[in-house]
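Help!! Second protein's tokens look totally different from the first
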Amino acid sequence: MKTKVIGALALAGSMVFNTAAANETISVVGSSSVSPIMEVLGETYAKSNNVTVEVQGPGSSAGVRAAHDGSSDLGMSSRNLKSSEKADNIKEVVIARDGIAVVVHNNNPVTDLTKEEVSKIYKGEITNWNQVGGENKPIVVATRDTASGTRGAFEDIMSLKKKINGIKVSAISQRAQVASGNGQLKTIVANNPFAIGYISLGSVDGSVKPLAIDNHQPSVEAIKSGEYGVQRPFLVVYKEGRPSKAALEFLKWVNSSEAQEIVAGKGFISIN
């Protein structure tokens, strides 16, 4: 709880203190890809409502766990929930959609890869840029940590899972550099002419170059039309009965036309 104290006033020789009603805090925990847009939404909502929206982005898996154990009002995930994470009392609300952009250094001459080529690069089966039309230089692969929803969605889309003793595990090469967030991965690629990585489309800026996949550039229009297939949902998840009334009102507002205009303005795909 946070309390606003409106200052002391001296009137006719006596001190009068006015204490404003305490703000209610709404806790939102999870995906580092969803966190930036959730922070903007939370700040916007708080301006006209007596609440504080606290957003933390330790990753999608942490967000789903927080929803299950009730340690936060709302969890955020940038991937579909696994079957092991689903439950009758766990509710899922899609608040936006996002593309995953495969990015390289701005000086890399490669402009287009197929999904199969991306998969082989991440499995370590394609190791030199000259195998995909680039320079004769080794490919430096950058990936996200295993708790990342972006990584989970990327592995599903790019067929980067394998079975070992009947258990599905990541097929991404263990030689890949691991980044803890979109920002760190983008920095790795921006600073290495031979690196490749993947980040939220909403995080793409001039520091890196997004590649076309199967001849389709990542864009809001291509995602809406279904032409660009490397995309995933942004979910808010919660445990039935856990969120406060204020948290549920905030979530309802997030899917309103006003909030979805903000979502679209930040480069994500609105749901309406």
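Here's the second one for comparison:
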Amino acid sequence: MPRLFSAYVMVNWSASAAPKTGKDSIWIGVLKKDVRFRLAFEAHNPATRAEAAKLLNTVLAELKRKGERVMVGVDFPLGFPRGTAKALKLKQADWSGLWAFLAKELVDKPTNLNNRFGIANKINRLMTDKALPFWGCPAKDAQTWLSVTKPDGWPGETPALRHADQACGGAGAKSIWQLFGAGSVGSSALVGIPYVKALIDERGEAAKVWPFQTGWKALTEADLEGLEVLFAEVSTALAEPKADAGEVTDRAQVRSLCEQLARLDESDKLARDFGPQTAKAEKLMGVVESEEGWILGC
């Protein structure tokens, strides 16, 4: 069976408020065909999100010219727990409404200075009029509806975790509502989703995000016909990165994920992973496709 994709891009994102390279910064891994048509890896470490977006556009444009279909994996949530859009009273009470809301609200300057804590403060005000569900920030960024530490209690019917978080991370899974601290993913989502949206919007029907626009199902060549880029949330559980001598851990992670995606695709296993793996999971189809999304590799 031919591979679904001919190139693989893995993005290790960062919500840093200042330019940063090296450990715990943005790393972009690209696995694409070289002049001998063999897959070869290259890594990039842009200091800011603006530089990263420009780089991704350049890489995707180059691969488009070569007629290569690309899978782009990101390491932050692309969906929110069920009920979030409804609690925000968005006109589109689904993933697309949330994406549009975040894209409108985000201010991310070329220096990496951003208003993610302000966005979280506003979301808390609109959802609960309390310092929840978002929590966690440096003391200087605490606001009326955003606290430094997690307050007691949990508001309304919006859960702490998505179904995918529970399936992939179990008891140790991190909630998108945590913005700050070791392992937190909330800030990366707030400053990451608008960039993914922009990349997709620029490409129109030639780019989609899984599973919202493809369906939560095993994908076939027919499903991807006419597509240049497919974006997906990817779990580090897909690969066990082993850093080479002197290699930054984040670089090893994007390299290992690119290589593992290519291996799965080559063996015709990646297509299957785009769908639910158990009968129990199939019951979640509606909420996964409309709001929460899923994590490839769970």
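Reply: Different proteins will give different token patterns, so don't panic. The chain has a mean pLDDT of 94.
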